[in-house]
Amino acid sequence: MEESRFAKRMQGMKGNAIRELLSVSQQPGMISFAGGLPSAETFDKETVAEIASEVLIQDGDKILQYGSTEGYAPLREELIKYLQKDGFNISHENLLITSGAQQGIDLVAKAIVNPGDVVVVESPSYLAALQIFKTYEAKLVVVPSDENGMVVEELENVIKKHNPKIVYSVPTFQNPSSVTMPLNRRKELCKLLDKNEVVFIEDNPYGDLRYSGEDQPKIYNLDKSNQTLYLGTFSKIISPGLRVGFAVGEKDLITKMRIGKQGTDVQTTTLAQAIIAEYFKRNILDEHIESIKDLYRKKRDYFLKKMDEFFPKEVKWNYPEGGLFVWAELPEEYDTKKLFEIAISKKVAFVPGQSFFVNDKKNCLRLNFSNATFEEMDQGIESLGKAIKEMIK
Amino acid sequence: MEESRFAKRMQGMKGNAIRELLSVSQQPGMISFAGGLPSAETFDKETVAEIASEVLIQDGDKILQYGSTEGYAPLREELIKYLQKDGFNISHENLLITSGAQQGIDLVAKAIVNPGDVVVVESPSYLAALQIFKTYEAKLVVVPSDENGMVVEELENVIKKHNPKIVYSVPTFQNPSSVTMPLNRRKELCKLLDKNEVVFIEDNPYGDLRYSGEDQPKIYNLDKSNQTLYLGTFSKIISPGLRVGFAVGEKDLITKMRIGKQGTDVQTTTLAQAIIAEYFKRNILDEHIESIKDLYRKKRDYFLKKMDEFFPKEVKWNYPEGGLFVWAELPEEYDTKKLFEIAISKKVAFVPGQSFFVNDKKNCLRLNFSNATFEEMDQGIESLGKAIKEMIK
Predict the structure, then answer these.
(1) Is B57 at the interface with chain A, CB within 8 A?
(2) Nearest-CA residue of chain A relative to B137?
(3) In sequence order, what are the beta bridge partners of A31?
(4) What domain range includes position B38?
(5) Is B350 a member of any domain?
(6) Secondary structure (3-state) at B105
(7) What is the pLDDT of residues A331-350, one digit of tens each?
């Protein structure tokens, strides 16, 4: 079919650049720090297998039948209780189960964004979110981020100037930068929300994975304006392949998102929802998260140690207190897309930072530390160090 | 949130009228012929439980990890082989696994439809499809149907006049009318497709469920213009709660749909896909479908017998050769929404036909025969017959 026959929203859309990179990074012999994959070591496949079998035998008639768009009732009950312990004062009308947190971004955009509407994103930003907003033909406006996340003073200016429908952020262990917004800035942000009519999306896929430092309260729970939409997921703490996430927000917005979901996929796979519900019922989720954190903390520490050892002093990087990524910066004159070519020839992959910027910035790289084994880190970071040295020599 | 803050596509959208009806029909003591639910008797929960456990133990690392947007490779392999036996000459670039067939409708609309573009639908038509096209702000144009489905001569006129982007149809055991387009009309339709640039959606959720009469070839396989998008699903033959369907079509269209799916839900739940793949590998699907057909054939026959017995002669209905529904018509002056009120008071529910028409038509009712038990049919059809008599007396 010719390109011109497709809808305007899809014309020229070539798919997620990172997903294309990932196909290169999956070549045999390649060590990949490119993806954002959880480690398969964190998948408790025996437990999931036992649970799947048990819930199907017990409740198969319900689990295999059509279910409600808002989600499987036992999961909704358990999740509300769990969220209440975390400070969320919500009821059923505030909750929608989604097919992964990413569906939450899609559904809120579907509910709110008309072509030409402004959506504010931080820079760098989560790539798939940028793509989703583009399919709704939003105009993206960028707010800079620093080591404390989105710069709220700048956001205030941008809101004044552009009157956006949505502000989108990953305020905790941001992808790709790994920075977390501290409490005082969260409070400032909420003051700003109080004064303006705008939906703030708090996308929080990594929040449960803190390896050091202090937990920050959720913006949803600080925001008295009732304009924050909170997106959570079980992808990083149970399994991404199950595709179960959730959205928490103001009831009219959740209702519109539910109506939007009816058309999109009717409902999220019930078996996947029933498996997550059983993690709550058996009270094994918190312990499971602790075991993941123990593993990832070791991986982060080892990864950073190896970077210290093998990366030249010209490279700067942050210290991630949680999440899955280290964000590194070369001197400004270097292009990490070129580095990618050299690295691939040395059998190691990462994601060039350019993919995460709405405006071009070429000297950054995102490194994933959750998926590789310790042996792969030994070899991969040494190779990547060599590639960098080759480039900047 | 105020209605005015939502996107134009969602303003005034109140959700699927049938899903609202269904909540009434789920009141205790209610006998429901309203839904389109498979019978829970057809769910082989022991087999699904055994398969789920086995595939997780064997391939859990892959099944629980992120997977590819186009679908789980083992399912794709098996499905292509299965479809080839059915006359589909396709390769991987023609296939996309979807989260239910309904996601296929959403993704093709997302790929093709700009606001104001014309989408042609048959009348009556599948309600959720109408809603999906509306969220993409399509202009719906109706082509009448008769006992042989969409009237192709009328379609020709409509295409000339409106130059639609999409023609949408359920040509086999249509929902709600249960009619099937015979071979000669399918061929005429394909001649029309040959002469015009338009995507034809062949939505086929019920095609495997034929209880009498002769199978008709798929329009996808008759269409030499390569403009048919075929949508299939495992919802009616394995389980709707698993949410696995598929789209078969021209490669550029499938590519755009895949890119659209990346944003929507990244991928379909892998465990659900792996369960379906195993049905193919174990070669148990065909036998399972036969057992479903045996059950539904008995249910259809019993349902029709009871209608003969209890419905007044003023009511006309078709003889469904397959699918899940009987479509009945009252004399034109009667409104089945009123009948619905009377029926509910007698503890029996159905879907008033008006929901399925883009233009109002008030005297039809859709009756589902797959879900109720034989005992429920005895009682429910007698009650419904009384309700009709009460109305038309």
Answers:
(1) yes
(2) A114
(3) A348
(4) 3-44+287-392
(5) yes
(6) helix
(7) 999 999 999 999 999 999 99
